[in-house]
Structure of Alpha/beta hydrolase:
Amino acid sequence: MRFTSEQHLDDGVHERRFSLGEIPGILWTPGSASAPAPLILLGHPGGLRRMHPRLAARARHSAAEGFAAATIELPGSGDRPRSAAAEEARADLRRALEAGEPVDDEIVDRLVLPLVEEAVPEWRATLDALLLLPEIGGPVGYAGGVISIGIRLAVVEPRISAALLFAGSFVPRTLFEEARQVNIPLQVLLQWDDEGNDRQMALELFDAFGTREKTLHANMGGHTGVPEFEGDDGNRFFARHLK
Amino acid sequence: MRFTSEQHLDDGVHERRFSLGEIPGILWTPGSASAPAPLILLGHPGGLRRMHPRLAARARHSAAEGFAAATIELPGSGDRPRSAAAEEARADLRRALEAGEPVDDEIVDRLVLPLVEEAVPEWRATLDALLLLPEIGGPVGYAGGVISIGIRLAVVEPRISAALLFAGSFVPRTLFEEARQVNIPLQVLLQWDDEGNDRQMALELFDAFGTREKTLHANMGGHTGVPEFEGDDGNRFFARHLK
C-alpha cells in the first residue's frame, strides 16, 4: 500500500489517497484519535471520482465518532480496466430495463457474480494492509452499497463484525443463499420509493439474512434520498458493535 | 382531572395516578424540568395494571430526555365496564384464530371500530386536561400500540405533532383509508417474527401512510421483543420533532 496524496480537512480529518497494486483507494482517519481507531469499509457502486463527495461526507461523519473509514475503486469502474463480459452484461441489463422486460436471473448472475468474485478478495487485501497501520485497530465494519459484495464479505471475512447494508436490486439467487449464513449484526437501509430497486426483493433479502440481530430502516424517497438522521443511526449502530 | 396518588421514583420522576371522570390514568413528569415539558401519550392494548411495568419503563426512559408521558385505561379494559358487543367480537376473533380460519373483516370492524370511536375522544379530553397543567407544554407525541387509535388520533388531533406506532394486526380497512390522511412524521416499529401480527399487512399499512416523513424500523423477535436500543431511537425521533 502506497500513499499517493494527503490532505488535512477543516474538521481535522486526515484524508489520504492510496494505491494497493492497481487499486486506488482513500483512507480517512479522525484528527483527534488517541488510540487505534475502529475501521469502517465504505462500499459504493463504483466510480470513486463521482462518489467522492458522498463517501467523504460519510467518512467525516464517522470520523466525528472516532471511526476511521476507507474505500477502494471497484473492478471495472473509474480508471480501472473494463471487463468486456461485464460491459456486455451491463448492456443486456440496460436493454431489458429500457424495454420494460423483467431482468433475467442469468443477466444478473453475469453482471454481479464476477464482480463479487473479484471485489471481495480486493477488499480483504485492503483490510490486510490497513490493519498494519498503527492508527487503525480493533473491529471492522462494512457500510454501503453493492449489497452482494457486503453479503459475501460478511460471510467470508471474520474480521468484519457488523455491516450496514444499502438495499439494492439485482442480487443473484446464490447470494440470497449466502445471506442465510450471515451471522453478524446487520442494519439494512431501504429507500421505499427507489425506482431502481425492487422493494419486495429487498424485504425478502432482509428476511433471508441468518443473523438474529438485524434491523431494517425503511425511509421514503429515492436512491439518494436517505435522510440525514440515518447517518447518526449508522454511527450508533457501529458504536454498539465496534466499540 | 383529579390526582389520586403520587410517588417520587428513585430517578426523580414524579408518577401520579389520576382520574378523568371514570377514566383512570397515569402521568409521569421529569424530576428536573425547568420549562414545561413536551408530552408523549403512551398507547397500549388495555389493562393498565398488567401494562404498568412496561409503560413506566418507557415513561422513565422518555423523562430522562425531558419528556412528560401519560397514559389512560382503554374503554372496556382493566377496571372499566365491559361492553357486551366488544366481548362478543373478541370471542368471535378468538374462535377464528383457534380454528386457524382467516379473520373476517366484519369481526375486525366490530372489535376495533367502536374502540377507536370511544377511545379517541377520551385521549383528546385527557390531552385537554393535561395541557392545563403548568408542568406540561409544547408539542405532543403519541407512542405505542393499538395502531388504529394512533392513526385516528394522528388524523383528527392537530395537537399531535409526531407518532411512534407499533405495528399490530386487525386494522379495519377504513383505518387504512384514514392512514392516507396522516401527514405528521411517523416512526413505525415492526417485530418481524410477531406471530400475532400479519407482516404483509403491516408493510401495506406503512406504505399507505400519507406522510412523506415516515420511517419503518423492523427488528427480529416477537411482540414483546423490541430491542432496547429502539427506546433510544424513539427518544431521538421525538427530540427531532417535539423540541
